[in-house]
């Protein structure tokens, strides 16, 4: 089927049209933290615009990704929607493959750099949605209790494993103590565990757990001030649990400020 054509102008002298043609084969590399939601944001526009789509889920993602692709494949011609499950070596194979025309990636900045480099060798298009070290800025003319409660929810949701979660908070000195006290109270009220009554579950996988533990160890080595929480993992829970932790006024060049934690 030919792609739709929009006629911009049609006269006896000239005809101007706008036509969008599919790229070909698109690859979506999806992380483990929101595997289905983020995948749908890639596969839907790719297929809608006439491309074949290869979904590469994270090896740490749940079975839901494979099941969704299995169900989706029943509604498309063979080969239009595919999913390839494998370890981290599969990603570079797909990004370097000459038969792939476009790569969409959601994940870390270091991996994003590698994908950009690999795609440049075959001049394939790419879209990168990378992590960020997001900051909240609190001015003097606010209700510190109301603002701090909202910051706490966005910072600690999904155990901090959200690319747009608040990782740093810059607070005007006139409301600093009130905001910090409210954040501390909020963090101390959070229940760790599994199930509907728990706000914070464990970190998703061992590599991420070890990375956050390394950041906590750096906080301890640097003698930073802990407003609440601990630099030690939770010992009485089975799983990769971290105590909700807030660091009071760390230096701008400390790792906990300069790096995206992706875990609270």
Structural overview:
The protein has 264 residues and is α/β, with parallel strands linked by helices. The protein folds into two domains: 20-130, Aldehyde Dehydrogenase, Chain A, domain 1, CATH 3.40.605; 135-258, Aldehyde Dehydrogenase, Chain A, domain 2 (3-Layer(aba) Sandwich), CATH 3.40.309. 35% of the residues lie in helices and 19% in strands. The chain contains eight helices and eleven strands. The chain has helices at 35-48, 64-73, 90-96, 109-122, 144-156, 176-189, 206-221, 255-258; strands at 5-10, 15-19, 25-30, 52-57, 81-83, 102-107, 125-130, 135-138, 168-171, 226-228, 246-247. A five-stranded parallel sheet has the order 5-4-3-6-7, sandwiched between helices. Strand 8, helix 5 (144-156) and strand 9 (168-171) form a beta-alpha-beta unit. Helix 5 (144-156) crosses helix 6 (176-189). The radius of gyration is 23 Å and the shape is elongated.
| Radius of gyration, CA atoms, in whole angstroms | 23 Å
- Residue-averaged pLDDT, rounded? 92
Strand order of the largest sheet: 5-4-3-6-7
User: Briefly, what CATH class of the largest domain?
Assistant: Alpha Beta
How much helix is in the residues? 25-40%
Please tell me the CATH architecture of the largest domain by its name.
3-Layer(aba) Sandwich
Question: Which fold name fills CATH's third level, the topology of the largest domain?
Answer: Aldehyde Dehydrogenase, Chain A, domain 2
Please mark out the parts with pLDDT under 50 across 5 or more consecutive residues, or reply none.
none
Q: Quick one: how many beta strands? A: 11
């Amino acid at each position: 089927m030919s792609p739709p054509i929009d006629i911009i102008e049609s006269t006896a002298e000239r005809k101007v049209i706008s036509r969008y043609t599919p790229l070909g084969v698109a690859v979506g590399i999806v992380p483990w933290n929101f595997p289905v939601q983020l995948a749908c944001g890639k596969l839907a526009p790719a297929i809608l615009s006439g491309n074949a789509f290869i979904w590469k889920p994270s090896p740490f993602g749940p079975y839901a990704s494979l099941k969704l692709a299995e169900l989706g494949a029943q509604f498309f011609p063979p080969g239009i929607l595919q999913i390839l499950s494998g370890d981290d070596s599969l990603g570079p194979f797909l990004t370097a493959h000459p038969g792939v025309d476009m790569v969409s990636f959601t994940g870390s900045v270091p991996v994003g750099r590698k994908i950009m480099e690999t795609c440049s060798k075959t001049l394939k298009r790419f879209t990168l949605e990378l992590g960020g070290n997001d900051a909240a800025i609190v001015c003097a003319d606010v209700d510190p209790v109301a603002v701090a409660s909202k910051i706490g929810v966005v910072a600690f949701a999904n155990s901090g494993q959200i690319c747009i979660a608040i990782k740093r908070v810059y607070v005007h000195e006139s409301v600093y103590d009130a905001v910090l006290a409210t954040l501390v109270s909020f963090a101390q009220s959070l229940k760790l565990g599994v199930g509907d009554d728990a706000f914070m579950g464990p970190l998703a996988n061992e590599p991420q757990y070890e990375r956050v533990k390394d950041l906590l160890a750096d906080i301890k080595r640097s003698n930073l001030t802990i407003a609440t929480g601990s630099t030690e993992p939770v010992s009485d829970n089975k799983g990769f649990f971290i105590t909700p932790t807030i660091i009071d006024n760390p230096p701008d060049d400390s790792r906990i400020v300069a790096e995206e934690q992706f875990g609270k």
